[in-house]
Amino acid sequence: MTIRVLIADDQEMIRDGLAALLSSDAEIEVVGQAGDGREAVELARRLDPDVVVMDIRMPEMDGLAATAELHRDTPADAADARPKVLVLTTFDLDEYVYEALAAGASGFLLKDASAADLIRGVRIVAAGDALLAPSITRRLIGDFARRRRHQRPSPAATAALTPRETDVLRLLARGLSNAEIAAELVLAEQTIKTHVGHVLTKLALRDRTQAVVFAYENGFAG
Domain 153-217: which topology? Predict the structure, then answer.
């Protein structure tokens, strides 16, 4: 199955470079390029990409606002119908990354990531998994969680998780994909997908990235 990708960056040279890298993979098709966030939103609605590779700092509308706009007014049970957003950021402590996760991004990579990491990242978020740059995942999520403790779900919601769902949440916090969690727990991948769906529903979380944030915030990660 071909993964349709839209690239959003205000620098044409970077857009062309990313397009060339991604197009080198036979299963990835770059369907469009946008020079700012507003154009990215418009093209995403018209071209229906699976993944938007999104820069943060852009004119007209930045990547944060564009990400939020792409996820606005979309019911949680229709999450698969909207494009996944993979944010590219220059600095590993970029303040905007926190807001990108809150806006609905499925993850982020640093702009110095290798071509192989970029392709892998697109594949991961297209499959519905979360992706966070490995070098800073724990620091980023830990800090993000401390900033948002006031939004923590109720204890009753946490208690609603079954022991198996709790196991899945802990493994989500480690950044494992459904296939990797299935191997860890010796269960079918479809069963893991069902458990992940139950975790998101019970905790009123939008996606896997928010589940990782929740896990760090509430002591399920370690």
Answer: Arc Repressor Mutant, subunit A (1.10.10)
Closest CA to 29 of 170, 126, 154: 126
Segments making up each domain of the chain, as ranges: 3-142, 153-217
Give the model's pLDDT for residue 174: 78
- For residue 12, report the phi and psi dihedrals to the nearest 5 degrees: -60, -40
| Four-residue CA torsion sign, 95, 98, 102, 108 | positive
**How is domain 3-142 classified at the CATH fold level?**
Rossmann fold (3.40.50)
Q: Which of 37-41, 126-130, 156-160, 202-206 has the highest mean pLDDT?
A: 37-41
